[in-house]
Amino acid sequence: MTARHALFGAFVVAFGIITRKVWVGLALYSVHDDSYSHILLIPLISVSLVYAAREKVFAEIRPSIGPGAALVALGLSAFWLASRRSLSADDRLYLSEATLSILLIWTGGFLVFYGRRAVRAALFPLVFLLLMVPLPDAVLGRVIHLLQEGSTEVALLIFKAVGVPVLRQGFVLSLPTVTIEVASECSSIRSSIALLITCVLAAHFLLRTTWRAWLFIALVIPLSVVKNGIRIATLTLLSVYVDPHFLTGSLHREGGFVFFFLALAMLWPVLLLLQRSERRERNAHIESRNQTATGYVGG
Questions:
Q1: I want to staple 49 with a disulfide (CB 3.0 to 4.6 A). Which of 42, 106, 125, 181 is the partner?
Q2: CB neighbours of 248 closer than 8 A, spacing ≥ 6?
Q3: Would you call 136 helix, strand, or coil by DSSP?
Q4: What distance in Å separates the CA atoms of residue 223 and residue 249, rounded to the nearest whole number?
Q5: What is the C-alpha to C-alpha distance for residues 195 and 215, in angstroms, rounded to an integer?
């Protein structure tokens, strides 16, 4: 098994060298763009997930060379096409296509070395790798716009709820003593992605039914909007009634984690409710099965 792991590791490293331009681009984006600061963390999490489930993943090794090689060939073709288009397309679109092709190559290699059963057992870590694919500019811009729109609306509702006069013009909110703009930098895209990653992992480990897991993950979008609207309203009200520097101080620049944990606190009871629902369903199923078995014995 050690030799097989070493061969697969060599396979990954070899293609890492071949696709080094992509990795350099991903590293630069992760350092300079808040929207992608998570990218290089995703493969580490995925490897950790495989390692934690290694007994199940590698319980039965039956290499699937044909399908795996076909998937590697498909990934190589996709990478070649992405590289051909890189001169005319924007860098982020190229990185999106190239990263997807690399994931195809990795999955194909995993299939070659370990087989279909191992791929099925490691399906979540493999799919989780999709979170490292950069969104094209058009898609990312749309997501940020929706976050801005929703956050502005939530902040507006909070101001009205506490009786603060406010006038909205697009993403600009005018209060009696201050005017703020919910710019793209205030969309909270970074913490929203962190919240998404956290919820995906929580759903994987703590929920057993697929529809409940997807429901929990789907709550990330509206909750991100609510969380960011609360953040905007809180900082603005503090600047109006306590100290104007709250809009430019450390809580504004570095206090995102406070509201991130607020979002987690709001999600926690939902998770407990879904877990309780699963337990009730499981217990009802066991009880029904026992009653059926008793009926057969009595008959």
A1: 125
A2: none
A3: coil
A4: 25
A5: 14
The model's pTM is 0.84
Distance separating alpha carbons of residues 231 and 188, to the nearest angstrom: 10
Structural contact between residues 213 and 203, judged by C-beta atoms closer than 8 angstroms: yes
Write phi, then psi, for 180 (nearest 5 degrees).
Answer: -120, 155
CA proximity to 185, closest of 232, 217, 223: 232
Q: What are phi and psi of 181, to 5 degrees?
A: -120, 130
Structure-model confidence comparison of residues 145 and 246, the more confident one: 145
Please count the other Cβ atoms lying within 10 Å of the Cβ belonging to residue 188.
Answer: 27
| Contact by Cβ (8 Å): 176, 165 | yes
Neighbours of 201 (CB within 10 A): 14
Asked if 246 contacts 239 with a C-beta cutoff of 8 angstroms, the reply is: yes
What pLDDT, in 10s, does the model give residues 11-39? Answer: 999 988 888 888 888 888 888 877 788 88
Token pair listed for 276: 């309780």
Per-domain boundaries in the chain: 2-132, 139-290
**In contact, 233 and 262? CB cutoff 8 Å:** no
Three-state SS for 62?
A: strand
